[in-house]
């Protein structure tokens, strides 16, 4: 049997690197994508062996040309993308009205447009082969009430809803799509965003390790679950913030979907 390959964005650290290690242990070959080429090469060297192929591609997904460049590279290397882990992300540090449009556009490109375009680019191949898995990184923040100027919350809500819509559409083709919605996770995210001091004051019970997030997320997409909120505390938080459980919302969406027979 030909080894399946997973494309992972934001693979140089945190949840992305944990996904790379987890999927390599499951026997998947990898195409690792992030801005920091050196970190990717180090991770690839760690994971390669006689059966696991591990390619790297340095790209900044705030660049609108990046998704197509990644998929073109895969095609040139003879790589079929069977698993897509849309993990790359960031969060702004200033209010919407006080942030430059260039910065806001970069956030939208990275976490909305690139996520959607990469899925659109790899789905035809998955359909042709009759098998695929897509994990889109949302956040427990997607369940929270609207907050002043928090573009991140709106973006992650889009990822949550888009993932459920894609799963409904693509499941008959053998493709499972899951929105993975972690809460606070130990990674470089808060260091990069400059929020480490604030984050470190939060209770330890709110935090998870990236390996635990990945384990639950991969189990969910493997079982065909469209939404995964990892961790008991995060499940309690998300369920308390929405009057209708997301599982029921998903059923209602499938039941009243005008395109389900189209």
Annotate the secondary structure layout:
Layout (H helix, E strand, L loop, with lengths): L4 E5 L4 H12 L3 E6 L2 H11 L6 E5 L7 H11 L4 E6 L14 H29 L2 E6 L13 H20 L4 E6 L3 E2 L3 H5 L2 H4 L7 E2 L1 H13 L4 E2 L3 H10 L4 H10 L7
Parallel strand pairs: 1-2, 1-4, 2-3, 4-5, 5-6, 6-9, 7-8
Helix pairs in contact: 1-8, 3-4, 4-5
How would you describe this protein?
Helix 1 crosses helix 8 (210-222), helix 3 (66-76) packs parallel to helix 4 and helix 4 runs parallel beside helix 5 (151-170). The chain has helices at 14-25, 37-47, 66-76, 101-129, 151-170, 189-193, 196-199, 210-222, 232-241, 246-255; strands at 5-9, 29-34, 54-58, 81-86, 132-137, 175-180, 184-185, 207-208, 227-228. The chain has a single domain, classed as NAD(P)-binding Rossmann-like Domain (Rossmann fold, 3-Layer(aba) Sandwich), CATH 3.40.50. It has a 7-stranded parallel sheet, with helices on both faces. A two-stranded parallel sheet has the order 7-8. The chain has 262 residues and is α/β, with parallel strands linked by helices. 48% of the residues lie in helices and 15% in strands. Belongs to the short-chain dehydrogenases/reductases (SDR) family. This is SDR family NAD(P)-dependent oxidoreductase. Residues 4-161 form the Ketoreductase domain. Its EC number is 1.-.-.-. It comes from Antrihabitans spumae.
């Amino acid at each position: 049997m030909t080894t399946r390959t997973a494309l992972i964005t934001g693979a140089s650290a945190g949840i992305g690197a944990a996904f790379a290690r987890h999927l390599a242990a499951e026997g998947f070959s990898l195409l690792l994508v992030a801005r920091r080429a050196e970190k990717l090469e180090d991770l690839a060297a760690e994971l390669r062996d006689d059966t696991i192929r591990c390619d790297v591609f340095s790209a900044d997904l705030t660049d609108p040309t990046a998704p197509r460049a990644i998929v073109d590279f895969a095609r040139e290397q003879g790589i079929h993308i069977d698993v897509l882990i849309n993990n790359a992300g960031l969060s702004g540090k200033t209010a919407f009205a006080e942030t430059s449009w260039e910065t806001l556009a970069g956030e939208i490109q990275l976490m909305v447009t690139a996520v959607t375009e990469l899925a659109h680019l790899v789905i035809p191949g998955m359909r042709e082969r009759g098998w695929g898995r897509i994990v889109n990184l949302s956040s427990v923040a997607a369940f929270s009430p609207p907050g002043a100027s928090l573009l991140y919350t709106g973006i992650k809500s889009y990822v949550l809803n888009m993932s459920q819509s894609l799963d409904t559409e693509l499941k008959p083709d053998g493709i499972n799509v899951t929105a993975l919605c972690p809460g606070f996770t130990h990674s470089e995210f808060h260091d990069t965003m400059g929020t480490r001091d604030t984050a470190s004051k939060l209770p330890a019970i709110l935090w998870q390790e990236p390996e635990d997030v990945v384990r639950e997320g991969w189990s969910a997409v493997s079982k065909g679950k469209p939404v995964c909120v990892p961790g008991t505390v995060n499940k309690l938080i998300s369920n308390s913030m929405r009057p209708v459980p997301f599982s029921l919302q998903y059923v209602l969406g499938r039941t009243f979907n005008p395109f389900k027979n189209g």
